[in-house]
Specification:
It is built from 5 helices and no strands. It is mostly helical. It has a domain of 58 residues. The termini are far apart.
């Protein structure tokens, strides 16, 4: 049984040895010394990094992003149905009714989102 796993064991040992040797080589051959504080400051398009690194976004941004993903995924489910529409109608007459109910639920959800004002940027 050990000869079957010997190549895998050798590959794991080579990977560990290679990564350890690269880490040791970077410590040995890397620049050792103190740098000035100016060199450690991140460069951002020529501007000095003053203030918070990550600005605060409104919750409205994340809400709209989540709604977009939800409605986008729902629409993606319609593409395979539309491609196979002719064959679905010939084999199953309920295909149109099932998609109509799916679109109705999607429309109700969209109306709910509009009524709650989730897509209104002014409020």
């Amino acid at each position: 049984m050990l000869p079957d796993y010997l190549p895998v064991l050798m590959q794991i040992l080579v990977a560990i040895g290679f990564s350890a040797s690269m880490l040791i080589a970077s410590v040995i051959f890397g620049k050792i010394g103190r740098r000035a504080g100016v060199k450690n400051v991140p460069y951002e398009c020529g501007m000095l990094p003053i203030g918070d690194g990550a600005p605060r976004f409104s919750v409205k941004f994340y809400l709209v992003a989540m709604l977009f993903v939800i409605f986008d995924i729902e629409v993606v489910f319609m593409y395979p149905w539309a491609v196979q529409f002719k064959e679905l109608i010939l084999t199953n007459s309920m295909a149109l009714l099932s998609m109509a109910s799916f679109v109705a639920v999607l429309g109700i959800a969209y109306l709910y989102v509009l009524k709650k004002g989730a897509l209104n940027w002014n409020s």
